[in-house]
Please model this.
Amino acid sequence: MRRLVRAPNAAIAQIWADLLCEAGYPATVERLQLSSVAGELPPDQCLPEIWLRHAEHEAAARELLAELERLPQRRWHCPACGELVEGGFEQCWACGALMPRD
Ligand SMILES: [Zn+2]
Model:
């Protein structure tokens, strides 16, 4: 296991982990279980982290996430469920609806 990156929130952590798994780099989200006691810990101790199962995937996995960050940053409200979607994603992480095209 190798720690790859810290995610800004649980939803994005799950999206990143899924993306890495789909790309062939098995990854898991850790520390999510601490969110229930978030008030008792420094905020940066509670953020979810992405861990790779195989350390040799680290370079490729970082490249994959870097590509994701180079996408135009968008922030939009899902027309189907009202969720705020951030981080360059074109699909609502909550319900799967596609980003509206204007
Ligand atoms: Zn939605």
User: Anything to note?
Assistant: The mean pLDDT is 84.
